[in-house]
Specification:
This protein is of the alpha/beta class. About 35% of the residues lie in helices and about 15% in strands. Strand 4 and strand 5 form a beta hairpin.
Length: about 300
C-alpha cells in the first residue's frame, strides 16, 4: 500500500494546527504514536484528532498535550501485558477464558486499560470532555445493541448523557474494546433505562477519514503489513473462532487492493505483528515506536 504524499504545506500551516486522523490496529498503534511524535518534531501541532481503537488512544494523548518525548516515555514504558485484566472466571486454568467469553462477553474486563489511560490523561489535567476544547477529540465506537457506528462524545446525548461530564478515558476504552477480547461497555440511558453495548469502533470505521473536515490541515496515520506467509487459523471451538473473527476484522482490509487514493495527506506505517499480542516487553514497544518514528521521518523528508 503506497501512501499519498505527505509534503506540500509549509511550516506556518503546520503551526496553525493539523487534524490527526488515526487508524485502529491493536498494539500496532504503538507505531502510530511513534509516527505522530516524528510529525510533532517536524513542526506539526495536533490540537484536534479523530481516531478509532488504538488510534483513539493515541489521539487522546495528542490533544491532551503530550509532547513527542512524553509520548515516547508513556507508550514505551507502559506495562502492556498488564492491560489484559482477566475476571475471576478468566483466571481458572484451561477453561477460564472460554467461560469469561461466554458468560461475561469478553475474556478481559478492560478496566485496566481505562484506568491506565485515565491516569495518563489526568497527568495533563484532562478528565472529562469538558476539559478539552469543543471537537478537540472525536472517536468511533460501535453500538452492538442498535447496530450502528457512533461518534463520541457527541453521540452521548442519544443515551441521555452530558458529553462534557463523560470521562475521555471511558470513551477511548469503548473505541478500543475489541469484541470477545474486552467486555463491551454498557451504557444505560439516563431517562429510559435502555441498555446499549458498545465495542471497538473498527467494526464501523477502522480509518475514520470521513470525520475529517478537509477544509483544515489533515494528516492521516495508517497501518499496513508487508507480505507475510499464509495464515491458517485452526478453528476448533468458540475461543479460536472468536480470535479468528477479531484478527480478521482488524487486518483483513490491509490485504485488499486500494481502490482509490486517500483524500488527505496520509502516511502508512508497515508493522508486522499480531495486533492482539499484548505480551510486549519494553524493548519491543520501543522498537515499534521507533519504527513508526523513522518511517514518518522518511515520509516527511526530515530524516
Amino acid at each position: 500500500m503506497a501512501p499519498a504524499p505527505v509534503g506540500g504545506k509549509g511550516g506556518n500551516d503546520r503551526l496553525m494546527g493539523t487534524l490527526a486522523v488515526l487508524e485502529g490496529g491493536g498494539v500496532k498503534g504503538i507505531a502510530l504514536a511513534g509516527a505522530a511524535a516524528a510529525a510533532m518534531d517536524a513542526g506539526f501541532v495536533f490540537p484536534t484528532a479523530v481516531g478509532t481503537s488504538a488510534g483513539a488512544l493515541v489521539g487522546s494523548l495528542l490533544v491532551a498535550g503530550y509532547r513527542s518525548d512524553e509520548l515516547r516515555d508513556a507508550v514505551c514504558s507502559l506495562d502492556w501485558p498488564s492491560l489484559l485484566d482477566p475476571s475471576p472466571l478468566g483466571s481458572i486454568p484451561l477453561i477460564g477464558k472460554h467461560l469469561s467469553m461466554v458468560l461475561t462477553r469478553g475474556m478481559y474486563r478492560g478496566d485496566r486499560l481505562e484506568e491506565t489511560w485515565s491516569a495518563m490523561l489526568s497527568a495533563k489535567g484532562i478528565h472529562t470532555f469538558g476539559d478539552l476544547p469543543r471537537n478537540a477529540l472525536r472517536v468511533v465506537a460501535t453500538d452492538l445493541t442498535h447496530e450502528r457506528g457512533v461518534i463520541l462524545p457527541e453521540a452521548l446525548v442519544d443515551y441521555g448523557i452530558d458529553p462534557a461530564e463523560f470521562p475521555v478515558a471511558g470513551a477511548v476504552r469503548m473505541s478500543a474494546g475489541v469484541p470477545f477480547v474486552f467486555r463491551p461497555v454498557r451504557l444505560q440511558h439516563a431517562g429510559t433505562g435502555d441498555l446499549a453495548h458498545l465495542v471497538d469502533g473498527a467494526l464501523a470505521a477502522k480509518y475514520p477519514i470521513q470525520l475529517a473536515d478537509l477544509k483544515q490541515n489533515v494528516l492521516g496515520f495508517r497501518l499496513a503489513e508487508s507480505s507475510r506467509p499464509h495464515v491458517h487459523h485452526l478453528i476448533r471451538g468458540p475461543l479460536s473462532l472468536a480470535a479468528a473473527v477479531v484478527t480478521s476484522g482488524i487486518t483483513a482490509r490491509e490485504h485488499l487492493p486500494v481502490l482509490c487514493a486517500d483524500i488527505a495527506r496520509t502516511m502508512v506505517i508497515t508493522v508486522n505483528r499480531d495486533p492482539l499480542d499484548f505480551n510486549l516487553t519494553s524493548r519491543q514497544a520501543t522498537d515499534m515506536f521507533d519504527l513508526g518514528y523513522h518511517t514518518a521521518e522518511e515520509l516527511l523528508g526530515v530524516s
